[in-house]
Amino acid sequence: MTSKPIRWGILSAAQIARKNWQAIQLSGNATVVAVASRDVARSAKFIAECQQQAPMAEIPDALGSYEELLARPDVDAVYIPLPTGPRKEWVLKAAAAGKHVVCEKPCAVSAADLAEMIEACRLHRVQFMDGVMFMHSRRLEAVRAVLNDPAAIGSVQRISSAFSFRAPPEFFTDNIRAHSSLEPHGCLGDLGWYCIRWALWTLGERLPLRVTGRLLNQSAALAGAQSIPTEFSGELLFEGGASCGFYCSFLTHNEQWTHISGTQGGLRVDDFVLPFFGDEAALEVQQAEFVVNGCDFHMEARRHRQKVSEYSNSHPTAQETNLFRTFSAQVASGVLNETWPEIALKTQRVMDACYESALAGGREINLG
Questions:
Q1: Fewest CB atoms within 10 Å of the CB: 176, 222, 324, 364?
Q2: CB under 8 Å to 191, separation ≥6 — which residues?
Q3: Domain for residue 74, yes or no?
Q4: CATH code of residue 229
Q5: DSSP of 301-312, one letter per residue?
Q6: Among 85, 118, 134, which residue terminates a domain?
């Protein structure tokens, strides 16, 4: 914990910002000092409602423009949950104003845009990180320990994952995630980003050699507008023979599982993005064995469940709180972490390539 808390500004009163307001409040080394939207009344309403549930020691200021927030000398860092379409503009402006940036995902419309955003942050000596919360869960330490244990699952050969939710009919007309001008990647950006990140993290943040993507369903919020993916699958092929298949969708019920298949066993996490409600985060290692004894043929599961003490949400140990605590500590250190922007750019590159492949009918895209 630092003696002087990092002072945060929030650009937008988006719904997800409520969760991260609370994460900042619980972090122990940060506080929110201002919230900005295009309507000062909306900012004030957002602050009043968040203060009721997770009060800051001092009530943050409500602002009616993003420019006003970035001009404030008492803001050290900004959280930007703006839609992907306009996000680049405000990351560039935040960097120029000397503000450290936590950026929602997908980070940009394209990898070229994200590279420009990251370079601006580097030039202005401000930290950049995307908002993938599971990267800050203590469960990842346990997963990595399993992957590093040669007697556990052996060499990783296959990573499978799915992240989906069934959106109501009004989602496809009213929600920004269905509008191509705001969120052009649809479910691939909103959900597939996590599946891609998991695969990259599992394999030591290496880029795949080749990728393919399939548009299984798509829709347009407005007549004449560009369609966005509403159901998507992708395939990543890595050097050494490992592969990854993922599925993301706005059309199927809540799922967020991943399975890592190795030469000696498998590792499964049923809630790798948003931990199931409770005070423990779990993973399961399976080393099933096929046993033959004369006429008896049977498969033994041989499962081992591991648990990490960590609350799913709304707690000082929760992964979103860890994200803002870790980021604030990095800012306080005065040293930039180069790995955070690098993994964001790699994730964007893979996502872009998957979409490019899908738009070309599944043509393989070479990233090697």
A1: 222
A2: 163, 164, 165, 248, 249, 250
A3: yes
A4: 3.30.360.10
A5: --EEEEEEE--S
A6: 134
